[in-house]
Amino acid sequence: MESRTPLTAADRCDRCNAQAYVRVVLPVGELLFCAHHAREHAPKFASVATHVQDETDRLLAEHGAGPGAAG
């Protein structure tokens, strides 16, 4: 079962506790990542994820492109 509930400020990255913008649904459970850690770990979870909910586009809308923003 994949979750399509929008991520909120209460959803925290499993690596660093920053706000999560990516939900990775696995055959058993799920992981939440900030944009940085989602990019870092994407090669690892891409082949095993059953669904990836990527809301990183909200970063630009909510915070704009700041110094060091990369595409």
Automatic annotation (TrEMBL):
InterPro entries noted in UniProt: DUF7455 (IPR055878)
Occurrences of domain DUF7455 (ranges): 7-59
Protein name stated in the entry: DUF7455 domain-containing protein
Species for this entry: Cellulomonas avistercoris
